[in-house]
Amino acid sequence: MKKTFKILSLVLALSLILAGCSGKSADKSSTDDVAPAVPEDEEITLKVTFFEAGFGRAWQEWLKEEFEAKHPNVTIELVGDANLVETITPMIESGVDAPDVFMTNGSGWEEWGPQGLVLDLTSLYEEVVPGTDMTLNEYITDVAKDKFFFDLGEELGGVKKYAVPWSAGPMSVVYNAKMFKEYGWEYPETWEEFEALCEEIKAAGIAPLTYPGKYPNYVRPFIRAWQLQDMGEEKFFGEFKNPTSPEIYNDPAILNAFSKFKSLFDNGWIMEGTTALDHTQVQMEFINNKVAMILNGYWLEQEMSEAWPEGYEIVMAPVPQAGKIDKPVAFMNMPDYMAIYGKTKHPEVAKEFLLFSLSPESCEMFAKLAGGLRPFKYDLDNVDVTDFTKSCQDVVGNSNYYQFTDASSNPLMFKTLGNDYLTQISTGEMTPEKAAEEFYKEAQTHYEQTKEDLGL
After folding, report:
1. CATH second-level architecture of 170-332+411-453?
2. Does the pLDDT at position 291 exceed 50?
3. CATH 3.90.1150.10 fits 10-168+334-384, yes or no
4. If you placed Cys at 296, which of 243, 300, 341, 351 could pair as Cys (CB 3.0 to 4.6 Å)?
């Protein structure tokens, strides 16, 4: 991946100081195949709580069975929680019913790490991943490092790691490959070709594109790709993600992205009624051949597993090339993470469980049992997975695509996509110009308030 131009994060250092806590570092272990030592002379129960949603629980059940087989004195207590995104915060911050290990989504670990509420896993990243000859530092992809490597500044120990990726994969355009074959369409390389394709699809009486209109965050791969393509690599990964002033959020790329979004509606390329539909409703329209392409993620096939017709074919594709980036752009969505509660009674067992869950075999089983992908250096050559999963894996690792994420651990970054503005643009209630103006004002407020909160 391209260098991500991280600044020395004085902000994060001050955040750590103001929190009044010093995250307790884990002791560095040996680099055996499974390095952290698990006591064998006591019965241990490890509570593992996970967000039970689109990926189901079959993979966690497999992890439990395999780990317990390796360590007969350890019992893995699995707790699936469909509301874990909401319930994990009070558990971790109060300690009541807190799990030893948890798998969820969001960015809570960024706040909890410096406070000591989750374990410092920096030394774990120096350990060899089971089934490989690579340390976790070497095994994780560069795109994932951009999110999970937390820079506290040299005076406070440099880069820290408080979490490991659970699931991550592409969020982009998914197209109906069967329909494309029937009409002789080809997915384009450039944005100009994409616009021509949309016109061709529309002329055939089919809606070119849709997304879950009630949840405009699904437009993220377009908005972020357009901003990256307009700004260029250095500005996007530098000032945009690590701002030294809020002026970057008044960059022309912001207005251009809003304007480009509006053009999708102005040109009649968005399926009629999209703005009123949720993700399930719009996905059913895609399944029922009402629309040729949908903005969605690598979880789509698994999430709608009971609805697909026999013989369906869908493919994940990158955002076509445009602007200052000379390749199609692949946006990596990585909201899911795994972490260890800071006050667990069994830190070494928990760390070994995490390390075991990252092995190539575990990643292969995650693809097989849950249809999920992970940002590590493994392949699916010997795994019986669907063609859609293979297409997602191709987008993750294809050197002909520019992989990136918009994640940032810098609290000064204005991470908001502008969902409310996107909704109002889509319904004609707001112009792109007004949206850009309001976005900038909101970014200014966020920047100044964050500086004040951190005492800068």
Report:
1. 3-Layer(aba) Sandwich (3.40)
2. yes
3. no
4. 300
